[in-house]
Structure formats: C-alpha cells, structure tokens
Amino acid sequence: MRFFPGGRQVVIGEYESLIKAMTKANIPIVASCGGEGVCSRCKVLIKEGQVKSLSTGKLTGEEQEQGYVLACRSFPESHLVVEVSEESKLGVHQVVLGEGGGNLKGRADGSKPGDSILSGSNGLCAGGSGVPLFRKLCLVMPEPDINDSEDDLGRLVRVIRSVTGIKHLQTNLDVLRTLPQVLRQSGWKVTVSLTGDGRYQAVEITEVEPGHTAGQYYGLAVDIGTTSVVAQLVDLENGRVVGIKGTYNKQAAFGDDVISRIIFASEGGLGELQKAIVDTINELIEELAKEQKIKPVDIRAVVCAGNTTMSHLFLGIDPTFIRIEPYTPATNSIPAVRAGHAGLNTHPLALIRCLPGIGSYVGGDITAGVLITGMAFSGKLTLFIDIGTNGEIVLGNQEWLISCACSAGPAFEGGGLRHGMRAMRGAIEHIKIASGGADVEYKTVGGAPPVGICGSGLIDCVAGLYRAGIIDRGGNFITAGSTPRLRESIEGMEFVVSWSGESGGRVDITISEAEVKNLIRSKAAVYAGIRCMLQTVGLPAEAIDRIIIAGGFGQYINVRDAVNIGLLPDVPVEKYSYVGNSSVKGAQTALISGRAWEEIDEIIHKMTYMELSAGSTFMDEFVSALFIPHTDLNLFPSAQS
Amino acid sequence: MTVTIAKEKWAGKVVEMVIGQGPNAIKVGGENTLPFLRFEGEIPNEPVVALEVWDTEPPDWPDVLASAFDGVMGDPVAWAMRCVDYGADLVCLRLAGAHPDNKDASPAEAAATARAVAGAVNIPLMVIGCGIDEKDAEVLPAAGEALAGKNALLGCATINNYKAVTTACVLHGHSVIATSPLDINLAKQLNILINEMDLPINRIAMDPLVGALGYGIEYAYSIMERTRLGALTGDKMLAMPVVCFVGQETWKSREAKTADSDEWGAQAHRAVLWEVITATSLVQAGGSVLVLRHPESMKQLKNHITAMIKEAGGK
C-alpha cells in the first residue's frame, strides 16, 4: 500500500490493520483509544483499493460515503492508496524542553522557580560521597619492578583508589584480556573508563585505553512522558548541557493514556510499545549527535525519568499488574541496565538508570520533580503539581512527603477534545466572552489563524462561558436567550468560539457541553487530589507556603483563571511558580551528581503514596469539585467577588 | 456526683419552611439541634406526614394497601378527601398519568387535576411529577400555575429540569423539592443552582432519594445525618428541610409485596411495619416531610413522633 502525502510504500498482510501498516511505514497517527475503534481519531481516506472495515465508530454517513475508514479497524483486501489527513497525524508539537518558567502570569517577585539545593553545585561528583554514573580518568601508573611486583589489575585499582577514594572496584573479562598489553604498550599511561550505578560504592572499570585519550564523553538525560519525550545531551566532563531535543512519544499510536497502553501491552503489544519508545529516544540521540557533531557511541551514561508505566514499557517489563488491584508494579526501583541490552543507540556498555518511583502511578518523573524543587529538604510546606494526564501531586517539607496521582486525563493538553490541541502555532490561548455570548475575542499562539484551543484557552473558555451566563455552575448549557454561537450538533449542544473564515481560520472551532463537562472533571480531579492530601495531614490550604507547577501545560496557565474555575487552590498568586520540565531537569541532575542519588534515596524513603481509590474521601471531594468553582464556595473567596 | 449533661452548641439551624396558605398552612424545619434533642436546642416544628394520591389508578398496589382506598382510587378528589379523613398533614398528589408510557396526560389535564384536588381539601398540597424530567418540565409549571398563590410544594426538580420547575415556583409562589441521588455534594450543588435563580432557601426542600429498609436505607440515613450536621454547623446550602418518599420505596420491596408466608409472617402486618420502620429510621436521621402510602403506617408513625416529642420534654 501507498500513503499520501509523502508517498511512502509498505507491504502488509491481510490480517494486519491499516494502523499497523502506518506504524511500519513510520507515519505517526492519533489513536486515542488504543485501537478500540471508538475514538475515531485515526480516520484515513481510501483513494484506491478495497478494505474490509469492522466498525465505523463515530464517522458520519457523509464521511463514510467519501471513503473515510478507521485505520485501527480496517484491513486490506487489495492494493491500497491511502490519504492521511493532517488532523489524524501526530503533529510535531511544541515540547517543553526544560527551560524554567517566566511566562507564568502573576508571579510578582523575581524568584526563579525550581531553585534547587543542588544548583550551583552541579559539578561532577559534587559534594557527598556518591559517584557519577560515568567518568574517564587519565592516569600515569608506576611501573612494576622487583620490589613492587603487584599484579596489573591490583596496580590499576590501587592507583584509581588513590585518585578517587572509591573503595570497591570491579572489572570485566574484556578489560582483563587486554590489560597487560595495553598497560605496557602505552608506557603505563592510560585512560580508564569508570562506570558506577550512582548510588553505591561499586564501580566498574569498563575500559582501559592506551594514552591520554579522554576526549569527549557524554551523558543523556531523558524525560519519558506519556505524551512527549525530551532528551538532554550533557558533557560529562564539565556537566554542561550541550543540546536538547523533544518530540512526541511514538507510543501514542497505541493509546493516549497509560491505561490503554497497559491494556495494549497485556494483549501482546509490549514489544511494539517498547520498540516505539526506544525508537523515539534513538531518534533524539541521532538528532543530538548530528547537531553536536559527536558519535552516539560517545554517550556513556543515560538517566531516564518517567512514570512507572513508562519505565516498565521502556525496558519491556510486563506492566499488566500496575492497573489491577492492588496495583503492584514489577518494581518501583529498576536496577541499572546496559544500553546494549535495552536497545539504545549509545555506547553498548553505557549504564541506563531509571529514577525510582514510589507507586504504580507516582514514578521517577515525580521523584525528579521533588529532587529539583528541593522541597524534601526545605522547611517551607510545598505543594508540587504536575498538571498532565496523570496529575501527580506531592505535598510536604523536610519532615514528611505525601503523594498521589489523580488521573486528570489529557483534556488540558487538548486530548479527547474535538478542537483541543497543544500550545502550538494557531492554538487559541486566551479567550474573552462577552455577557450573553454574542461576542468572543481571542488570541492565538503566534497570532496565526486559529486551528484549535490549547489548555490555557480551554480554562479561559470555561471561566468565560460561566461568566457570560452560557453555562451554569454544573457546566450545563443554558439554552434560553441563546446566541447564534450556541447550536445543536450531532454530539449535543456546542458553542462556537471562532467561525470559519474569521481571522483566516478554516473551520468552526467549537466546544461542546460534553467537552465542558470533561474539562470540569479534569479540574475536579486535580483539586480533589489536593484536598485529599490536605485532609490526610489535617492542614488547610492556607498552610501551604508555595505551590510549584510542573508539566507541559503549566507554562501557559493563567493562575487567576485556573483559580476562578476551581482547578487550583485560592491562595495568593505570589505563592505560585512554574518549574518547567522538572522531570528532565531531575534526570540531568542525577546524571551528573552522585550526591543526587543519596537525596533520591532519602526522598523515596520519606514519601508516602496515597491510594485514592481506597476509601470514600477522594470520590466525595471529586463530586464536590464538579462545580464552578466548587460546591463549597467558601473555599474560593476571591472567585466570588 | 452530679453528671453534667454534654450539650453541643450549634452555630446554624435548619430553615423554617411554610407549606400552604392561611389558617391551613403548616411549618416544617427550624430546628437548631439534632432530631428530638430538645435539651440542647429548639424544635419548633414536628415532622409531618403526607399520604399519596394518584391522578390515575395505580396498577400494581397490593391489596393490603389498595383496600385502604377502596372505591376512591379512580377519583383523585375523593381519594384526597379520604386522606384528610385519615388525618394526613398534607396530600401528595402524584401526576403519574402524565408519564408517556401511562396516559401521557397533557399539562392542561395535570393542571385541572391539581386545581380540583386543591379545591376539595383544606390541608396543604404537594404536587409530584411523573419522574420523566422532560415531561415534568412541562406538567409541573402548568400545575404550578393552576395552584398559583396556594404555596404548594412542587417536585421533583432534578439537575436536568430544575430551571423550568424553579421558574414555576418563583412565578406562582410555591416551594420546590430538589432531588439528587444520595450524594451530599450533588444535593448541595442543586440547591445552589436553584437558589441562584432567586428562589430563597426557605422555599427549597431536599429529596435525597432514600432507599427503603433493606434496600439502601443506610446510605440515606448517613446522607441525611450529614445534611443535618451541615445545617447545624452553618452550611446554608444544606440548611433545608428533607422530604422522604418512604411509601414509594417501601411498596417496591419484596417484603411489602409478598403474600402471607410461614417464613415472613402475615403480609398486612409485615408490609406496614416495613413502611413504619423505614419512616421512623429516617425521622431519626432528620427527615421533616415523610410521604407514606398506607394510613395505618401513618397512624403508627404519628404515634411514634408524638411519643418521641413527649420524651424530649414536649413542645
């Protein structure tokens, strides 16, 4: 079969779905439901040939007549020519690479969010007794003589120990086999590669090269997000970040969220999911290597931060029981593995370390966040919120930490909404709706013609619809006295934010009642998670000293609007700050600082995981938050005025 | 040694609601204490009892229940007068005939029935729809208009049709029953939405959709208890009197519908007990208006309430 645009060709069997063919042809496609035939996002147009379709999902009669089918439920019956529309493709969206905030509205002071106790000491092996994941040492060794006839390895170990203080050193057979020749031919002047696993005093001599050839050697810090993947290339000699790249996670072809991917993995798709993420990271490595003019084999250590499911899928570990009561992952703390074993295109002996998590839904990406915010070692009571699909929240200070995942869903990242999108060019990021809803003013990213609504726009939109009297506090459309913008559609009532033709937009951009309620559920989940944690420790929201927001969406958020709809607690705006991609920042810190691993151990040890599905507290809080801004209006005094 | 009686000091109270007009009006609510705990607060009004009257003959009422209304079940006016004779505090007119699967009676027919019943009895009226939200949004405003100024209790307003029902109450001077499914937060949300349509909180009653004995009464009990505690601790949006549709739930139960048996005993006795125990339990949880079906149940419930009030030191 052939694909347009692009013209790529691929051969498939009659029992392989079109979505599988597209994966083969490396054409990224949206399949929010994981190929269940219900989300209708993987719509493609058959230009030539015959297919057999099992279901048509929500395709309209008109679309079916034109020849649209669902790629996940269609199988070839002949040679095919298939057109893939832009809306079905996974766009190369804007990825939050790791830079700190700055555009968080309302931060009054000039404070830098994410000031870490580690910043300023980010040098190699900085402080403490930890060891870096990888380093090279240039050594000049004393030659043996009749009074000092120690064996070659013993001599090498003795010298390394005297330079580094590392007590336990191991090596491998390959090194031993060539060691006598290398030492002598180089005149006892060698470069030694040391690989540690970051947390223990066990370090391996992985390579001994003749002469002083240290040259350049690099590490890779990777944030494996459910939706986006970001990789940082770090010069391990000086700890500097030399390059950074981000892209979407190719696993999105098998489901939008971790649950649908776990199901896909349990049904035999684990290999495909693993390949998808390894391919994603390898592509980033290739791009970074090309850009920095280095060889992938110069990458000698990798630290990954991802949620528990992502870590499992990345290494091909069975994730089935993460989602089955009582929610037990294979491990929260994955031991170091070799890059060659995991399929990463770096030095084959490079160590990969995944940051440890503490539960099924609070993983290494959150540990990374706690690490770089320094909250676990601060006297200030800090609330850390990752406003993403999984909605992890951590509350605590130097004495205690408590965490949970409230499953906010991808709505604020544009997922599951007909006109939702990430904050890229053409996304409506701010909306003003006049009373009654007749007039709508909006602003798009880059001032481009509108193509959809991103997270901040959606928050504005819900707040605006309520203020304008178009929805009630429960998110129901009030139809009486409606404007032409409020209309009936096949999926119920919808409000037109932007008409086609307006500002150069090509389609009507709408938000439906079901979508408003979807957003209210998302915001309710986040707020209910926060309330549950405060209740568990018996503290009021006023006790929180600072609130740190992480995650791709946080960058664009308007705190005032978020408080108005009840997404975030009604505390002074000055308490809020944005930390950026704390996951990749944490991975980078762990890559270059041995001491970070000691802190991570302490964080993991301190942090309590709260299972929200046990007991009735979360459900109670969730329902009370399914309201604008909340059922208990006293919790939002400033939203009332 | 003297025992000091521990008394709770409550900050809030249940609002007092007036149902009906003139000398026949009754009041419910107004408590600033838990049920029957008069030693630490005021209980200005006792719980009241309504009997159901249908605009159309109920198809599946067992004989032990139907026999109490022998000869009047085809005539809502005569039926309502029989309820007055039995000593009901209110008549609860159920417009079951408006149900699309029943007679699909029109709003005008519903209004005529309501007007006729109201004209025949000298006790306050509740008017309940057929339970289909869309249809109730049509028949309740029509009935409300027919009863304009009579200060009836109209229901049930749900999250889907509260706007139409509330508007009718605002326009024609009635109070509303706000129904939500056994959830304190959903109940509160509906109260806020209704209140924001400018219906004052002393014209809103809450229906938590109780379950009968053996069929979820414990959920209803704890929800009602939380509602009362909410009112007493100052939550205005939970400070409304609670209506319990006890008869409707009781007479669905197998224990009330099954004929005499060795295992369960005589139906007449058992069925009435099922209704009485459900009602007395919910009175303990803070119910203000108990809607029953059997006159014998009503008699026993009223005896119980009188005894409890006397125990608590009388009025």
Would you give an account of this structure?
The complex is a heterodimer of chains A (641) and B (315). By secondary structure, chain A is α/β, with parallel strands linked by helices. Chain A has five domains: 2-93, Ubiquitin-like (UB roll) (Roll), CATH 3.10.20.30; 134-210, Ubiquitin-like (UB roll), CATH 3.10.20; 218-354, 2-Layer Sandwich (Nucleotidyltransferase, domain 5), CATH 3.30.420; 374-407 and 523-635, Nucleotidyltransferase, domain 5, CATH 3.30.420; 411-519, no CATH class. Helix content of chain A is 28%, strand content 22%. Chain A is built from 15 helices and 28 strands. Chain A has a six-stranded mixed β-sheet with strand order 13-12-11-14-16-15, with helices on both faces. Chain B is an alpha/beta fold. Chain B contains eleven helices and ten strands. Chain B has helices spanning 63-66, 76-86, 107-120, 133-146, 162-172, 184-195, 217-232, 246-250, 254-257, 267-284, 295-311; strands at residues 16-19, 26-29, 48-54, 90-94, 125-128, 153-157, 175-179, 204-207, 243-245, 289-292. In chain B, the strands form two sheets. An eight-stranded parallel β-sheet of chain B has the order 8-7-6-5-4-3-10-9. A two-stranded antiparallel ribbon of chain B has the order 1-2. In chain B, α2 packs parallel to α3 (107-120), α3 (107-120) packs across α4 and α10 (267-284) runs parallel beside α11 (295-311). Chain B is globular. Chain B starts with 15 loop residues before the first strand and ends with a helix. The mean pLDDT of chain B is 96. The chains are: A alpha/beta (641), B alpha/beta (315). Chains A and B meet through α14 of A and α6 of B.
